[in-house]
Hints:
- The structure is a single chain.
- The chain is built from 6 helices and no strands.
- The radius of gyration is 20 Å and the shape is globular.
- The protein has helices at residues 3-36, 49-54, 63-71, 75-81, 83-105, 116-132.
- The protein is mainly α.
Amino acid sequence: MSIATTERRGTARLKGLLAPLGVAGATGALFAFVGVVDPNQPGHYPTCPFLWITGLYCPGCGTLRTIHALAHLDPVTALGMNPLAVATIPFLLFWWGRWVVRAWQGRPRRTTLAHPAWLWAFIALIMVYWVVRNLPFGAFLAP
């Protein structure tokens, strides 16, 4: 193997890693920003439009406060704000890690995130979570 081939392969690997590293950088910047700008203080972020219009919590309500709590290494508070968001993080990390490995190996990106049945199941879980967190017996899921 020649030096030119090795250099091209190394350049291709770095080029392939730009997108996943960019996503990691943007996510880190988001966590840092929300960690510094407290969503618990009024006026820093807009109100959830669904909550504002209906008075009901959407599946994402409490996610900014969850990110803030995680940025301050407080997983108990994060779980209290939005347990579904906290439970989703390991899956997002897994998919991001798989993306990094595929990019490093020079393999093409996958066009599907997961099997469609898993995605439909996740959508169903979000819908059930949305309804239950707005019912009296599901009040523990509300932020």
